[in-house]
Amino acid sequence: MATLTTEDEGKFLVDSEGEQLGVITAVDDGTAYVEPDPSIPEAIIQAFGWGDADADDLEVPPAAVDTVTDEEVRVSRDL
């Protein structure tokens, strides 16, 4: 299990098969908030770390995170 920080905001969340699930919009106490299938403008905003979590974001608990790289966060199971 990897620990997420605000440095991970803007990264892609991918499943165990490598399929993109969305973009991390915020991280709070290790929990990631993910915008599923963001529009292009939303993805650009998140890539610069300027976004915030909103009502339609998915919550990804720390226990679901498997690995973190420079570009993506991979979950160990499908959400």
Briefly characterize the structure:
10% of the residues lie in helices and 37% in strands. The protein is mainly β and 79 residues long.
- Poorly predicted regions: none
Counted beta strands: 6
Q: Give the end-to-end Cα distance, rounded to a whole number of Å.
A: 15 Å
| Number of structurally distinct domains | 1
Could you report the average pLDDT, rounded to the nearest whole number? Answer: 81
Provide tags for this entry.
globular; 6-stranded mixed beta sheet; mainly beta; 1 helix; 79 residues; 6 strands
Structure description:
The structure is a single chain. The protein has 79 residues and is mainly β. It contains one helix and six strands. The chain has one helix at 40-47; strands at residues 12-14, 20-28, 31-36, 58-60, 65-68, 72-75. It has a six-stranded mixed beta sheet with strand order 4-3-2-1-6-5, with helices on one face. Strand 2 (20-28) and strand 3 form a beta hairpin. The two termini are 15 Å apart.
